[in-house]
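explain this:

___
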Amino acid sequence: MLHLQNYINGQLVPPSAGHYLPNIEPATGQVFSQIPDSDAEDVARATAAAQAALAAWRRLPAGDRGKLLVRISELIERDLERLAQAESQDNGKPVSLARTVDIPRAASNFAFFGTAAQHFASETHFQEGVALNYTVRHPLGVVGCISPWNLPLYLFTWKIAPALAAGCCVVAKPSEITPYTAFLLSELCMEAGLPAGVLNIVHGTGPGAGQSIIEHPGIKAISFTGGTKTGEHIARTAAPMFKKLSLELGGKNPNLIFADCDLAEAVRTSLRSSFANQGQICLCGSRIFVERSIYEQFRQEFLAGVAALTVGDPQDSGSRQGALVSEAHLEKVLSYIALAHEEGGTLLAGGKRVTLEGRCAEGYFLQPTVFEGLAPDCRVNREEIFGPVVTLTPFDTEEEVLAWANGTEYGLAATIWTRDLNRAHRVAHELHSGIVWINTWLHRDLRTPFGGMKNSGVGREGGLEALRFFTEPQSVTVKL
């Protein structure tokens, strides 16, 4: 049995109290490792190590910090297959997805921010004959990074890399449901020569280790990705302590398909945006609105694509759908399928748990599921399900679909399919979404800000926005 360890002050160490949690492989339903059930003492040790390392790390030139981050990126690329296998075992996603998306993007996070900090410019304002005013951005200090289970290494590094690049030291907690690749990252950081205490990884639960991170007075900021309810709790705890907050929360994202779209591409990409990672991506388009004149054709082609999505062992190259992350999450998604029936929806595809043979007989598998006939304002169309469940709804006018698209508490992402350039820009600007894709989905540019509106969070990650978050400005005036 594999026993994971915390990474504190440059070393792999057991939890202070000696308590561990079982880590279950979603595809088999079996425990395959034990992870530290860390507590406030472990977080205090990690924070003390980060504070001790901070002065030297923040003084280190950005280029030298960047070289270490690039080295970690290279080690992730070297160990891509090992990390992909670990991510699949831990999360339930197909190995092919981890191999082509999750792990390469984790490497690119370190590579991008390893160089970005060297191009992070300050502002200068010249008052003729009076003074020179300039702005310096200093690292915040020790910061906390808490990441979710759906894209474990990808989103973990998405937070850690800019914090380190900015000159902060980090106390980080991966999800207790998917801790394996974070543990392997600890080993790579040691191999890369990252100074002791600069990055500390504490495993454990949200109420245990996570709560201790957000409460610790020595941690100056919290970057969190996860559910909206958890984000609310973090804000209630951290805001009175005047901690800086970046909260990337839930989504219930609309996919708007107009009659003049490239239908084949819209169908093909909508299948991905509906069911990638078993629908367990905050950016998935779970509400598909199709202009009525092409609704029947879209539905027919979309359902044909759904039928071809093979649910199977994540280790099999032919599997397009793996396991949901946990039994509890599977039960949650199944409860929404039952609710869709209660709310009058017509089941077009899926809707049932899948039982496989062999090693995956006890795994948490679910058919890709499609409903139609649900009101735009029903619970299934308003609440985040975070699984392989989507709804199809025809619309008649632009005004109508915009009202439906904006009719939830969320505002994370949206997708528009049209060949009309004027409509594309007009509709994009009317959507209450922090991210809008036109004729594409999940296109990633690390230079752009990432985040949502309304209950999808506060703050922005990515690019220079991330470096700004992990620094604070200081204005300096020199009299001439």
